Amino acid sequence: MRAPSTRAAPLRALLLRTRSVGTRSVLANRATTVSLVAILVLLVAALAAPVLTALAGTSPTAFDTGALDANLGGLPRGGFGGISSAHWLGVEPGSGRDLFARILYGTRVSLLIALAATAVSVVLGTVLGLVAGFFGGWADAVIGRVMDLLMSFPSLIFMIALMSVAPAANRELLLVAVLGFFGWPYAGRIVRGQAMSLSRREFVEAARALGANRRTLLFGEVLPNLAGPVLVVATLSIPACVATEAGLSFLGVGVRPPTPSWGQLIAQAVPWYAADPLYFLLPGALLFGTVLAFNVLGDAVRDALDPRGGGR
Amino acid sequence: MIWYTLRRLGVAALLLLVICALTFVIFYVMPDDPAQQACGKACGPERIAQIRDTLGLDRPLYHQFGSYLVGVFAGRTYGTGALSVHCGFPCLGFSFQTNEPVWRLLVTRLPVSVSIAIGAAVLWLVVGVTAGVISALRRGSLWDRAAMAAALGGISLPIYLTALLFQYVLVIKLGWLPHPHAVSLFVDPLAWVQSMIMPWTTLALLYAGLYARLARGEMVESLGRDFVRTARAKGLPERTVVLRHALRPAMTPVVTVFGMDLGALLGGALITESVYGLPGVGKLASDAINSADQPVILGVTLFAAGFIVLANVAVDLVYALLDPRVRHAT
Amino acid sequence: MSLLEVSELSVVFGNGVRAVDRLSFDLDRGSTLCVVGESGSGKSVTSLAILGLLPGAEVSGRITFDGVNLVAARPAELRALRGERIAIVFQDALSALNPYYQVGFQIAEAYRAHRRVPMAQARRVAVRMLERVGIPDPERRAREYPHQFSGGMRQRVMIAMALCLEPELLIADEPTTALDVTVQAQILGLLDELRRETGTSVLFVTHDMGVVAGLADEVLVMRGGRAVERGPVDRVFAEPAEPYTRALLACVPRIDRPVPDRLATVPPMEATR
Amino acid sequence: MTVLLEARDLVMEFPVRHALTRRVVGRVAAVNGVSLRIRSGETLGLVGESGCGKSTTGRLLTRLLTPTSGSVHFAGRDLATLSERALRPVRRELQIIFQDPFSSLNPRKTVRQILSAPYRYQRVAEREPVERQLARVGLLPEHADRYPHEFSGGQAQRIGIARALALRPRLVVCDEPVSALDVSVQAQILNLLKDLQEELALSYLFVAHDLGAVRQLCDRIAVMYLGTVVETADRDTLFAGPAHPYTKALLAAVPIPDPARERARPRVPLTGDLPSPLDPPTGCPFNTRCPKAADRCRVERPVLRAHATGHDVACHYPEETTR
Amino acid sequence: MASRTRTASLGASLILGLIAVAGCGGAHGGAADSQAAGTHRGGTLHVLSTIDLEHLDPARAYVTSTQDVVRLVYRTLTTYAAAPGRAGSSIVPDLATDTGTPSDGAKTWTFHLKEGLKYEDGRAITAADIRYGVERTFAPELPEGPPYARTWLAGGASYQGPYKGGDLAAIATPDDRTIVFTLNRPVADFGSAAALPMFAPVPKDKDTGVGYDSRPFSSGPYKIDTFEPKKQLTLVRNESWDQKTDDVRKALPDRIEIDLNLDGSVVDQRMIAAQGEDANAVAFEPIGPASVAQVQTDPTLRARLITGESENTRFLSLNTRRGQLGNVKVRQAIAYAIDKDALRLTRGGPIAGDLATTILPPSVAGHVDGDPYPSKDGKGDPDKARQLLAEAGVAGGIDLTLDAPATNGGKAQAEAIQSSLAKVGIRVAVNEVSGSSYWSTVGNTAQEHDMVIDGWTPDWPGASTYLPIVLDGRAITKQGNNNRAQYDSSAVNSRFDQIAALPDANAANAAYGQLDGQIMADAPVVPFLWDKAAILVGPNVVGAYGHVGYVGRLDLVSLGLRG
């Protein structure tokens, strides 16, 4: 670690900093398997959303006021949020849109944004962290300061404010950019540390002594050794992005209607939480389950790759 | 050490300045014309021009930013003549919405945020660290597995979901707690606790999970250190070995991370305060964002960044005090 | 009766590795036994096994110290022995000393673990011990932290800590391996001097035949967890009975003999077990 | 013999940073005016204790570090001032072997990739198949597709040696190549280095702290203390009659596997600690620990000068050569 | 910055996305009809508000919610009658002895003040204070108020307010209790306009400029004890106020605490539970859709639900100057296609009001029943719409952009419109605009898109501040535009002039009703809801009724607590 000032920062850093706690033995491989299967099922469901909703005969945007009781303020008819053969998970109060379809499409949007944002932050973080850690000196000073700066931002406030003034067009892309931009220092810091220690290893000197140029040293010698940490950062960054995207959409600055996303579904359900609890419980449980599954998976990846085998 | 402190504070100030500039540019340039927003609906073009003049919006951006900075350190006077208003140090401007000085808004909202942050911090520190340390000592036991599974669950639970669940179950369904509202500890301690218990628990669920994992990891590593073996070889009682030799090094990173988390929370627990409707700094931020109240957004961002940056400095100093290797380093 | 008798000692780690395999030896009061071997020979594991400092490993056989079987001893019995009657000096003094506490405190703490005395008195013992191991300005240095000491000085602190209760047995686990030769000579000289003064028995673990030659009364050569050869130092060096011992002596380039064209090498270990 | 490499007045200063503030609080000269000469076909030993600057010197000679001042003449050029690009062809003739065999091999690459890399980096055709390279250092063809962690320390060091030799260098800097190895393996590697030197007509700079290994391999020896060379001589002269008090003490400190001699030998050849390189003593760097230090030693820094033919010493009061 | 922001209360209400358009109003005559219930004095009344109060300063208060509250604090020349139903829309004297005396063809208006009027510090209220209050509305620093003084008073165009320009000659105060306004045109309604907050007295020595906003000086029964914006306003009795001079206000509670910026569902749940202090509370805003079911199925709760009529019509403005919307058939197709029932459902169903078929709501005098674009249960007639689109030559569908406020309610309405228009092949992109800047954005002709979620409440009862403001083509301005349809029909424009010249108010109202139908045939706007407000009151509260002048909110001046 460089100066003490570079020691970690809030939430996500903590997550990433947390040493392997040995969940491989703690939660056993079964939990990892279940998580992996759950994530795969979710991914397939998200990809197949148009097919699945066609099978269910619903669409995420079509109103069905017939499923609602107008005199009760637009509450779904029948109990349990209007679950019926036509609407497998019930309908949205006030509009009668099919919840199954909306949740499926929401999954698509949420996962797409999280994965893309993770890709952006991991690629940015890896490249910049690599450069900072490997070259040190001037490059490290600049990149390190930028990382310090970004991590000193009250990022949630800032992201919300930024999203709220940003133009309406292409919210998904914007979310990816904002999440990626504020996320990369966390990946960057880890990669930087690893790159720094790797660059002091003698095999790098050996390659230099053999006449390798800087690009080869960076990408041919050091980068392959970062695959482990980068993979860990990526798996742990996905749930963080899922949760943050949901948080932003929950606060009303995420994706715009009628595009559904988990956070937005939960936000719309907030006024109804007393009258129609299933409306927020369903997307909420899915969000929780997904974040949990990715976290379990992230722990497993970290344990598998941690050379220290912290969990032994 | 004094030099170091001063230098860190200097860097912190510089950092805040950059944050301030970035925020200023983004929020004063991107949205619609502030004059138009300030004018309201019955507003003609000539009136907008007048407002632009009063707000100084015609002047170049660096000039506006300069006036803002001067205001922060020395206060400033808005407008001219009979209607001029003086805004004393530290002047963060006036809310577009309520016309109150932003600084006063922040200061009046701070107690709520502090109540939430401190209470939650005590809760998660006690629960999380205790659970993590016990897990490390009983590695692989049923306790360890249960605690770590719970910790992972806590980390994965989004705050607004926890908050909604608590409200639904504890307030609506069971009626055990009232809807949270802002009460001062000094006015009605019982109501204060009743109002705060849900926000505390909501935040603590997340952070306790993080801290349990952190504490366990650090403790496991610490227990494996050579000097712990030395302590055992001296014939020290196991309790002394654990508490004196293993726990102290394990807690150093916990303390530093804690400082930064607390700093971030003091700047407003945005989601928690919004969901529970508690008028803290975080709620102020979300309200200001909803109403595009630029001076307040800028003020809150700076205020919160100030806490984070100062927490960083404090943590570095505490770290130096905790670790003699750093303290005596040359 | 010997002070320490080890018989049929085996240590198996959780991952199935048999680090020590049916090892037997004994150590008389007042004498020095050098355990010598290459890495993986089980020499350090043996020393840790004597103190019961191998958590998670399966230790079998007998380790009899002054009539008490340490393998079967209760934790409290073992703790009473550690530091008080059996002390240890580790190889890497930097990591073996707690960076968070003053060295004086760490010595005093060892003293107070077995003597009910006030802290101030234990501190005085610590200062006296530091002086005795040759640390200049001991009063001041007792208040310093391990990282403020040089490698040799740190190892002196470890020795002071180990000897503050005048143990009957001192285990020295490669105490000079990390040190430069001139510092090694200082530390070996110090150990020898203290041993003569206190009459402490020493179990000295090392890989360096030269060190063994200067220090040992008896030698135990280990390889792959087993004893290869045991005997008085003069006999073992003069007439090594085992090919491995002979090879180990021959493969080291020496500065006191003509330079050979090629160095002798050690034959590979037969795949036994 | 022709001079292959000549270093003159090498100085390497590192900034010293405060651990907390990262401010540069001083400069430490790890190498402070070292001049060396390596003749073609010979092995020059560079010995000294930790922190004396011997490894730094090795890296300066290979231009893995750029000296603060001084020159390194090799193959008719001054390496100290060449650009990385201009250095590349020079590197074919000047290689280095490292101390830690595992750290010096990229864990993500197979032996085959490691051994063919030199040709790739130099953009030259593969001169020698990997199997041949392996055979030369005593490894088997089937080792080619394994990863470094599948080898023992000795085997890994053999791979490191094979890599250094891939481009057929004329000079190889061996930076403590056997320090991390068990004694039995040390012997094998020392033998291998000797064999290769004969086979490929190599010159070595052998950096080590183990006097036994140095004596085994080297023709000439330079002794370093606190960043400077205090004595150079050919092997037999040095071991038989060291002229510098430090060399003498160093030789006296080496334990010899002979109980009778060891017991008779006076212990504790040197008192005191190595001075901090941050705050080196004035005058002779060794004066704080030297048994014969006089007033002159505390003021005037001795320069390396001829004590006898081919025997240079930096001491005001050198030992009489007893041979 | 020495400034503030917009007027409408949009930003605040996350739940309802209120399209509350400022309003105030009055018609001549009609005396305050005192309520029978609740004569017990004392107690603390709690008001739970999900929104904030925007600008307590009388020069700047232009939002119905604020006007409802400030009526407790300061008095105006005239005011609404404190009465339920349409009686509430009559204008009665307040500070003045009558509703004003016109002369010079209604170009000069004279008011006389009652005797014994006092401020909170006991000093007398003078005509000069009222003049000063009106003059303040000219100051550019206090921009949010209604435009009437600026547009009507002679010489107002160049007057810069009392801070820079001295006194305005158009207002004369021959003595302390007489004030005379000289107008630049005949205004028959001036007596009604005098009920606006800008006609409240402001003592010059108490004026703190923009700072006056946080604590206006009291002339009414309550004075401000504490005010924390977005948090709480606490009112306590003004002992200097004399009940005998005031026929409108009852001033029953000793203390009124208004909690601001609460969460909508929390307010609903607290009002339903009505525990402890909440028994003495009233909600400030209508209940949310999510609470309707609970209230409707519980008779005791239904008994505590007060429904008030409003004069607000919600409509969709179709920007007639953009693309295909210039084609009347396309507009008519949209009018047919809109599912008004679905739109109403997003606001809670029938409890939120009646489906609108004309621009002028039934509560406004002059309203004429009619439904030019009928459909079964108001769910829209897609077939008819498609037919019209085909006739317009755009059977393949068109793309339109809808401006909607970025509130939950605004988004829900936008989605409902999107969904109904999708059925006829009109693809709608939604442009969300931050709630607080919504009106200034859609009021900027450069920023307005094809369609706007819109609505209007008259500034005082009657059609005269309704149709001419929303649909007169000559009133289109680049900024601050109220004619979001940008509808400019010369026939309609000249008809506005003719009606304005009518001497008889009833005849004028009837004519506006006819004109409403004529405009509807052109479909520049699609009305979909005539608002009602359903508000919960605590079991201990008496005297609650919805006031038409405050879009159906409770008339705060009449509330009291059981003893």
CATH arch. level architecture of chain A: Orthogonal Bundle
User: Considering the protein shown, what is the CATH homologous superfamily of chain A?
Assistant: MetI-like
Q: State the name of the first-level CATH class of chain A.
A: Mainly Alpha
Mean pLDDT over the residues of chain A: 81
E-strand count of chain E = 19
What is the fold-level CATH name, i.e. the topology of chain A? MetI-like fold
Our count of helices of chain E gives 16
Radius of gyration of chain E: 23 Å
Question: What is the typical, i.e. mean, pLDDT of chain E?
Answer: 86
Structural class of chain E: alpha+beta
Oligomer: heteropentamer
Helical amount among residues of chain E, as a percent range? 10-25%
Count of individual helical segments of chain A: 13
Gyration radius of chain A, in Å: 23 Å
Spans of chain E with pLDDT under 50 lasting ≥5 residues?
Answer: 1-38
- Residues in helix, % of chain A: 55-70%
**Secondary-structure element series of chain A:** HHHHEEHHHHHHHHH
Could you say which overall geometry of chain E the principal axes of the C-alpha atoms support? Answer: globular
Portion of residues in beta strands of chain E equals: 15-25%
Report the sheet with the most strands of chain A, covering strand number, pairing sense and barrel closure: 2 strands, antiparallel
| Biggest sheet descriptor of chain E | 6 strands, mixed
Short summary of the structure?
The complex is a heteropentamer of chains A (312), B (330), C (273), D (323) and E (563). Chain A is mainly alpha-helical. Helix content of chain A is 67%, strand content 1%.
